[in-house]
User: Fold this.
Amino acid sequence: MTRVFVTGVAGMIGSHLLDELLARGYDVVGIDNLSFGTLENISHNLSNPWFWFYQVDILDFERMNALAEGADVIVHLAAIKKTGEREPSIGTLRVNGKGTEHIFEAARIHGCKVIYASTSDVYGMSPDLPLREGGDLLIGPSMIKRWSYAVSKLYGEQIAYAYYKDYRVPMVILRYFGGFSPRSSFTWSGGHIPLFVDAILHNREVIIHGDGTQTRSMAYVTDLVEGTMLAMENEAAVGEIFNIGNDEELSVIETAYLIKKIANIEGALKLRFVPFEEVFGRYKDIMRRIPDLTKAKQILNYHPKVSLEDSIRLMIEAVQNKHRSD
Assistant:
């Protein structure tokens, strides 16, 4: 049996990945400091004899390194995602930078393969659409703190390549595009769809940043997990970067109306438009974000299976069921 060490195991992607790993017969050691992830997300697995959970921070190298011993693969999902200009960025830079260094050093010591979770944010404002793994990246001005997340993840990619080339640590970089599930954080760090679903079903205001014409490509979490498993199990993936997500593109405001339609909600949407400057300062939002999945399809045989409409339908059903049970 292969042992997988998962950081950020109690988060949205991590908890669903845990479900899939256990279902496929892996044993799993998972760590999370529970600053974003929740025990509720993994509670149904805590009694599983093939899963060991530890509340550990990836900045605690001694404890994290000891727990990684015996693992064949490390899936590194733990991160801090900064969303607003008023929030501090030191934590984002420290955790996503130093924490990733810790993961790769542990992998070097113990001979592990690493799956490193990067983000579509690293593409920045690239006009090269759809966004390709080999394309140039266009990051905005350094004085805008909103870029700290993208820069920290891009630094993590460079760490991954340094350990791969200098120390022969096998690794795969996954650039996740937006994803969601009923276990998403219902904050802006969890994406706009969970927030929109919750607001529309409860007849509250739907907050739109800017005019809502910016587009996103959002995937259901099972497609993100499937891409992660394919990268983990395919040796041809080693040393490569892959976009993982859904390549359906829809504007933010159109997504709100689609949710209303699928939920069969009567009446007008309560929309409130908030200028970008109020949330992000001088940061300019990325107006289009769509992945080129050609490489993942060719090498990993990755094909997203859940359409955006079906993903939204699953999200609506989950929120409605939770509301009925409360």
